[in-house]
Amino acid sequence: MRKALLSLLFLVISLFSVAQPQSGKVYNLKNVGKGNSLGITSLFKVIGVTTNKDDLSQQWYVESVSGSIFSMRNLASGFYLQGNNSTSGAWNLVSAKVDLEYTSVSGAFAIRQSDHTDTYGYLHIDGSGNAVSWTYSGNNNTLWQFEEVPYTKEEIDEVLNSVNNLVVSDEKVATYQTALDALFADKACTKLKVSCTEAEMKSNDNYRALPATLRQMVLKVLAGSWEEANGDQSKDGWSSDYAKKYRVQLYEPYNEPEAAAKALKINAHTNLNNPTGIYSTAHSHTYVMVEGEIKDGASLYLASYIGHGKLGGYSEGVELKSGLNVVPSYFANSNYCINYVVHTFDTSDNKSGKAACKRKLSDYPALKIHIEGGHINGYYNKVGDALYTPDKNESWDYLEARATQTDLTILGKYITLQFPLNDADTEGNKGMAYYFNERVKIEEAINEWDNVMMWERLLMGVMDEATIKANALKSPYSSAPYVIDYTGKDGDAYACDYGDYYNVHGLSFGVGGNSYMYGSWDHCGYHYSTMSGVIESLPTNAGSHWGPGHEIGHQHQGPLNMRGLTEVTNNLFSNVVLWYYGESTSRYNGDEGALSNVLKAFNTQGSDFFTNNIWAQTHMYYKLFLYYHVLGKNPKFYPILFEMLRQDPMTIEYEQSGVKSLLHFYKKCCLASGEDLTEFFRAHGFFRVMKDRLVGDYSNANYNMTQEEIDAAIAEVKALKYPENIAVLFINDATGETIKSHKGDNLDFYGESTICAELGSYASFATAAVPEYTYSLSATSITMEGTGGIGFAIYNENNEILAFSDKKSFSVSADALLQLTTGQARVVAVQANSTSVICQNILENASTEQLRTELASLLGSAEAVLNLRDATGTKVGYYHSAYMTSLEEAYNTAKYVYDSSNEASYLSAYNGLLQEYSAFLVNTDAKIALDTDHTYILVNKAYPDRLMYIDGDNNVKAQAVANSYAYIWYFEPSDTEGKYYVKNAATSTYVGKISRGSQLYASATETKDAEKYELRDMGNGYMALIAGQGMHCSSSQGHIIVGWDADSDATQWTIVDVQAYDELYKLIAKTETLIETMAEDITVAGDSKVGLTADNYYSNATYTAQNNSDKFTSYSVLCDGKPSTYFHSDYNESTAPNENHYIRMDMGQGNALQSFKLNYTTRESGNVYALTSIAIDGSNSDASDASAMVWNTIATISSGLPTANNKAYTSSHLISDVPYRYIRMRVLGANGGKVKGYPYFVLSELGLYNVDYTAQLKDEYNSIDKSLVTEAYKAKLGAETLSLTENAQEALTHLQAKYDALLNAKNNMHRAQLDALIQEHVRTGLGYPKETSAEYIALLEATTVEEFNAALPAYKASSDIEMPQDGKSYTITAWWRSEQWPMVFSNTIYKPVKDATPVTFVCKQIEDKYVFISGNGYYLGWEADAKTGYTSNIYADGQQFLLEKATTAKNGGSVEGDLKDDELFGLFCMKAHNGHYLMFSSGDSEYHSAYAGNKFYGHIKANTVFFKLEQVQDYSVDVTISSAGYASFYTAIGLTTPAGLEAYSVNAVEGNLAKLEQKEGILAGQGAILKGAPGTYTLTSGNVSSDWSKNMLCGTATDTYIQGSAYVLSMQDGAVGFYKAMLNKDANGNAGNTHFLNNAGKAYLPMDGHNVRCLVFDFGTETCIIETENGNVKTENSAVYDLAGRRVQNAQKGIFIVNGKKVVR
Hints:
- By secondary structure, the protein is α+β, with helices and mostly antiparallel strands.
- It is 21% helix and 28% strand.
- The strands form 25 sheets. Strands 79, 81, 82, 83, 85, 87, 88, 90, 91 and 92 form a ten-stranded mixed β-sheet that branches.
- Strand 49 and strand 50 (1040-1044) form a beta hairpin.
- The radius of gyration is 45 Å and the shape is globular.
- The N and C termini lie far apart (104 Å).
């Protein structure tokens, strides 16, 4: 009935708006974003749970409300909700009342603890369902609705009374304990003291003193029958043996996980080590009887979780004591676990590794614990204990039939499995009941899980000797008894045995949602959908081991890991697991882990270790395992390495030093192996300089490493004199050779891995034959001929590796090739013992035919490179022509030798060309690189008429070129080297993920939603864009872009820089706007014939073969005006050119044409040989070599050309991209014959007409030269003729010149008016727009008064303003419209005073805030209404101000009156740390922070929040050095010292010596001793970076009375030092004996308890007492004696006795 009423009331409530919480009511707290509710799963843990308003754990009683302050109790436990003031900090429950506050946000509420101030402190449900702190800004997961759960007051009281009654008093527990002690012989209550009948027992007073649950316990012990009913009455009950097994258990001690994690540098793992198999019932008691001592250093807790859950920290629960514990059970289905923890590790003082070992587990016996109350769920225990035998397969069947909870825990020796039992709890997947004993035996599964964890722990060296020797196994390829050996008896610093200190289970935990597999701090998660692999297949399938090994590896990778390697170093563990499983080789992920890929990265310009793919990186770590462990070279290698890195770990941080990471790891590996592994790590890229190298995976790092640091690390290793080892580089298991497992059978090849090595298999490593090889070089690779060895290497003269391979053919870098060709490098074959055999170049003994063949091959390679010259410098992957001279000369020489068959010169020609070829390839500047600041077009290789573009639906396609930004692309660098985000210039959207055969889209508006593409050089100037699949132009799908293989022609592109076109396109628009501004109209004025003479013509096809009428005599026939004379192009087969015939016309120097018509006349009579198709080309090249001229096509004409005799033709108006001096008519077709495949032709006349324009200017521009407009117009028209595929640089330069000339003319017309406006409105200095701001630039670039006035408001409103600079000096003035009052210092505060001299402040910038201090040592701060606050000579955060541009609307108040923003131009508002503004009133100029409700004015002399800051000359102080040469000094502001003046700190006092250290400058707030020649010195404010942290000198900026014993610089008897100050004042300056007066700007040395009267200066090189100034501080007199004991009045130089000490004077 109650549920029905509740449901009805919920329905009614939902019809009304959600109200704020009210005192005395109960609510279900609903999360707006997640849609679930706030609930609890243990006594203290708060999470988001699926809404069930009937569940007490989701019901929250609001106990009190005061405004927005309230407190809330959970009805299941009665505990109060408590917040967390740390971002992402967990919320929890506590027993004491906690005040919360709510903030109304968009119809919902944000909640945080009332005394918390962090804006990220609000109650939030994170992605894992945890209740944590976060901001509510823009986040619905931090917003809540209070949905009332109807309760009467009586019902609430009933629930709370029930909760309160759960707590049993200590007195009552003591009574129970007394009764139990009388009845039982043991504290665990399993053996009765007396034998009696049940009736007799029931009449026993001690029995009757017990609660019902314990009485029932007594009776079942009496009867010897422990059987009990199931908590679910529909299921079978528990037999006596099983029931007792879970009610009474021996619980073993385990280490505390968090401390172990810190000591071992790994993740913590779980506290779920001792499940009980018992779960609670709601509002009842659980009775826990502990037998045995809980020894010092151990703790015992009863912990719990609900549903499919896991435990938190070891102390999250109820602490248990020996004897009886009565534990309240606040809610049902809490699955109990015992946390019996020994604090085996002490990590105080940052102790780690074996130094942190403190307490042994073996010193702590297992505890016998008896639990009564609740119900049994059971759990599977593989190991068992002294009371019970281990569980078997049949045990599972029994448990599965009776378990009622979501999870049925499986406890192995090293791992705990926590997956849902039933399908219903696995999001549509299968539970463990489906798998165990049906598809896989549970014993097999848990054994294999234990193995995975154990094998990883073996590698880390954290196991005891017995376990290692029982499980480390022997390799069939080693004589060593164990693959991983025990180090605990080694007797050195790294010998370790953690077996008695480290024993904790890993937790494998089932997860749903979007997860797959992951490794976290306390568990590894496996999605329910993976259970067939990680549960069913694990015992029988190698591939199924990878996931668990990988995820648990995440938990163990800490000592090895660096940022960027989080998915790499854990793969070492996976591969080691595969080796121990013994059914497959390691994982190469296809061939990605091949050594050839390491070489590829090594050969890549600018590469480093992180250039390697993750599988190549993975195998670097695995090679060390194969070599040192599987081959038995050093079976202790990894355990020692782990211990070294535990004791002396890498420092991992965002600003990552390579010294503290890469180089540190390299050195430790050498130390652990006892070998010099320098070249092994060089091959993997460890020794490449890195400058701001951003590397990231789950967290980013900015790596930096210098050559000097690299050299120092290598030198450190070389100094150890270890034997060098390069053999380890070549070891692998990827040759396809037969490999035996430790079981004796053959290994299968792992999964998708492929054969990717020819030499170096560990199966034949030790037996490889002595190598005998020769090699041959090609342009980019080496081929080895011979047998034996394990691999190949190329070394330079310094024995540094240049190339390496486990294959007989491999690529070499241009640098390696160059060094080989110049004799600076050698090729070697490497043997298993790391020695090498030098290999000879096959050409040294080659036959003539071999030499000719090699020379031909090299000529082909060189020619291919030469063909990739690009004079425009725009094609990515091509070469700049300017760098090709030497290569071209060597090529021509070698080509001549080859063509002439000069056999004697073959070898020299080959060597000469190879040297130049390799030298060219080494030159990185020669190759045209991608510029991420430029724009590009992509021309398809298979379809060169098609460019990549984007259509209106963001589909990426390829189609014929059009002048549109849709064809233009940006390449934005990603955080991965060599990968880019591809963005379209038209849409500003990014290309997304690509899949095979499917349409590619570019719709992502942010890079986080875009895909990163590798720009892969495919050779011959073609590039591929790869992200798993390449961008492919699919002709069968309408030329859309889809994913496909990179080696397809249609997946390769020519990438052309069109930045010039991009700039040209923008300039065209600017030019057009400028012309439209100035001109009404522009029209063609007419044309005029260009006066060409015979000297202006040239043809490549003059006919000279026969002396007939066709024979060429003079070019005058083309310009003589006679139809009867003609030019006949060459039709003789032997003399005609092998190209199109053309006639070139030269306009002469300075007469280039851009706007013109072409005119010609056909032959008067005879064979007309008329033109049918012509091209008009232009050039500005040097005409001295016609064949070398570069031509650009202006137009192609194929229609309207006359074919009859004596017909004139004039072309349409032609516009070229730029003016050309040379115009040629190139004949593409004629109606006569052809010679060598090209048509010949006849013309009577050929000429050009210059077409000019005239402009009608607007009246205001009539004074401007019209030709400037028409020239700009022609240049614009010419630029518009260019297509995207043409080089636009020349047109851009030409148009820019014409545009600039016109713009200058225009600007000069308005210059006087604009200058006056700039003088009137433009301001510079603090508070005004920066000269680099867009608004400032726009204003100054205005060319008309209208433009200036239009830009002025934005300039005045600009937020890009000049701000104060760190270390500079300023004055601050309070501003009212009519008056401005400067800030002064008065009566210990700052305030504005009319007409006063302003105080000078020095600025200190702290992030985005500013602090101001003056020379008196006081900081500017805000004052509260009581005139107390942050004006102090002691720094506090309250003195920080955020400077904001002044406006008439500021938070915290409002501006009254008619004040306008324009009047506030250049002023600041100063926001204090409390969020309000610094405010002054002219009536009460002592200031305070303006709170909400204050009114701001500024237009009258009332409240103002407006201030003017002005920079003044840097703050300075004059100091006078007396004839003594010394002075003491104190400064509140950092000061730099001038030349000739030295500053010293006092860093220590030893006896009568004051230890001085010279410093650069004086840090703010420090006292100093100044030394210099007599005179006055000026110290100036500035940044001081010297370290003053050890300085003992103090001082004061003002006259101050100082309490206590101190020393001051003073003089006695003509000698000076630090003398004891006389305490002759009180705190107020009156006569006394507690204080002394310290003068302003002076230093003193506080030394309480030091009785030496005088301290001598010790500069480190000399000790002296010197004459100095007379100070105002009185000092105690000391007598001076000579060495004979006589008093001396005027001591001169020598040794004297002062205060009983020898002193040098």
